[in-house]
């Protein structure tokens, strides 16, 4: 190895105590990295994919002064599937830190806040409450449509965002840089390549030598039903406090939530003048969950109207209001999804730290049933951006930044996958003949017990309150 090109670098994997070094990791780092950082040369980061994680990373790096180029396969920022996203306090903190105040205010003006998610309910197929998990008001929580969030995160990236760019592969060079190749024959070269290309990521698969996720055995059909004078009265009352996940016989599940940011935005959208808010019309967002074998024919070949009919058939025997709301759905919004998940107990980044890495669903794919995917990808982006800022400032190197990011990300991504997989476990358990029979017998009994339990708790609370007053 030519010492003029490569520079040995070592660092500890843990804290130094009383002057004694912990276990040391050693890498051969290209000398060009050291020269680039010590001489203040520009660092360019290539991002494959303009999803939530990729766009957040681009915004954060641009504010640091790092050059970015985002290559997106879609033809436009609005050309995406998906419905409503849940951003937890950790994701909100990342966005507040890396967006300008005007930009973050537009995000708040486009989102419903805590009042739209005061609790998470679990019900049976007749929408009878089985359990409810109250949500803490202290933590900032935002509910925003996928397209509005994508449009907001793309704001200001015009010169760095390239559409219609299908990534086909990459090649690393002796000086430590990397070149990305695209289907139209074009290329781009930078100091780091980040795969933010979602489930089925080509970047992560090239790094790992295999796909980084697998089908979860459950598929979904989702859509939006506009809320107006005809459909709003059909919305079950329990959805006023937040979303619900319903389970029924045959392993069929249903996620339902009211999405109305215009009626409950965190800040007045009219106050967002420098960066305009992006609002959606009120709608009921619904998503059917079914074991892969329960969906008839080839659902990917069906249009929205056909998928709506399939959903109606699978909801036979369910609450009549829910069935009517599904029938009233906008067929242009109805789509089929096959859920994928990474192995939460495996090494999510089984490649050495270097000039290529990945984030979001590219490394830790998870079904949408936990509401964690977008928030976790944004958290990844904030973590990686912070490490790259240190490298840009000369305090680290790109391989060191990537190593630290991958190690820290592994500490929380596995839990997010496990949380998102839990509802799929119920779908599988209720899918067979035994599970179906158990569901028909036990779900009504569970609903009755839950209702009685709440009544006893409420009565006890009234008695205790009265005693305190006396």
From TrEMBL:
Signal peptide: none annotated. It holds the Pfam family FAD_binding_3. PANTHER family: FAD-BINDING DOMAIN-CONTAINING PROTEIN (PTHR47178:SF5), MONOOXYGENASE, FAD-BINDING (PTHR47178). Residues 43-208, 348-397 form the FAD-binding domain. It comes from the Bacteria. The keyword Flavoprotein applies. The lineage of its organism: Bacteria, Bacillati, Actinomycetota, Actinomycetes, Streptosporangiales. Keywords: FAD, Flavoprotein, Monooxygenase, Oxidoreductase. Gene3D superfamilies: FAD/NAD(P)-binding domain. SUPFAM superfamilies: FAD/NAD(P)-binding domain. GO terms for molecular function: FAD binding; monooxygenase activity. The keyword rRNA-binding does not apply. This is FAD-dependent monooxygenase. It comes from Nonomuraea longispora.
């Amino acid at each position: 190895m030519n010492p003029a090109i490569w520079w040995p670098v070592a660092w500890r994997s843990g804290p130094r105590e009383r002057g004694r070094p912990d276990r040391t990791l050693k890498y051969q780092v290209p000398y060009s990295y050291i020269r680039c950082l010590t001489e203040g040369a520009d660092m360019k980061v290539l991002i494959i994919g303009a999803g939530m994680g990729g766009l957040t990373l681009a915004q954060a790096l641009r504010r640091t002064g790092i050059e970015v180029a985002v290559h997106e396969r879609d033809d436009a920022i609005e050309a995406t599937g998906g419905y409503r996203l849940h951003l937890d306090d950790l994701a909100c903190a990342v966005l507040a830190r890396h967006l300008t105040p005007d930009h973050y205010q537009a995000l708040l003006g486009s989102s419903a806040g805590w009042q739209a998610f005061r609790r998470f309910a679990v019900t049976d197929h007749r929408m009878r409450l089985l359990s409810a998990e109250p949500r803490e008001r202290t933590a900032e929580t935002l509910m925003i449509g996928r397209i509005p969030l994508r449009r907001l995160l793309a704001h200001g990236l015009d010169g760095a965002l390239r559409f219609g760019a299908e990534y086909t592969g990459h090649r690393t060079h002796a000086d430590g840089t990397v070149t990305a190749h695209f289907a139209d024959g074009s290329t781009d070269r930078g100091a780091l390549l980040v795969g933010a290309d979602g489930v089925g990521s080509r970047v992560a698969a090239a790094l790992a030598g295999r796909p980084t996720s697998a089908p979860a055995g459950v598929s979904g059909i989702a859509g939006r039903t506009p809320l107006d004078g005809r459909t709003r009265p059909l919305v079950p009352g329990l959805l006023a406090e937040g979303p619900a996940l319903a389970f029924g016989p045959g392993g069929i599940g249903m996620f339902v939530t009211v999405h109305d940011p215009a009626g409950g935005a965190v800040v007045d959208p009219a106050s967002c003048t420098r960066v305009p808010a992006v609002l959606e019309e009120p709608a009921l967002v619904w998503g059917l969950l079914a074991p892969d074998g329960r969906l008839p024919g080839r659902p990917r070949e069906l249009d929205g109207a056909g998928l709506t009919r399939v959903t109606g058939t699978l909801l036979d025997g369910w609450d009549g209001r829910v069935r009517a709301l599904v029938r009233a759905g906008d067929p242009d919004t109805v789509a089929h999804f096959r859920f994928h998940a990474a192995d939460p107990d495996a090494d999510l980044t089984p490649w050495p730290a270097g000039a290529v890495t990945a984030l979001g669903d590219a490394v830790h794919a998870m079904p949408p049933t936990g509401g964690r995917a977008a928030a976790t990808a944004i958290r990844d982006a904030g973590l990686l951006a912070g490490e790259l800022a240190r490298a840009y400032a000369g305090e680290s190197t790109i391989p060191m930044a990537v190593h630290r990011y991958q190690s820290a990300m592994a500490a929380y991504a596995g839990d997010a996958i496990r949380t998102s997989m839990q509802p799929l476990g119920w779908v599988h358990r209720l899918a067979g003949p035994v599970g179906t029979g158990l569901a028909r017998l036990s779900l009504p009994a569970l609903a009755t017990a839950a209702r009685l339990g709440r009544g006893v708790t409420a009565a006890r609370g009234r008695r205790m309150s009265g005693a305190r007053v006396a």
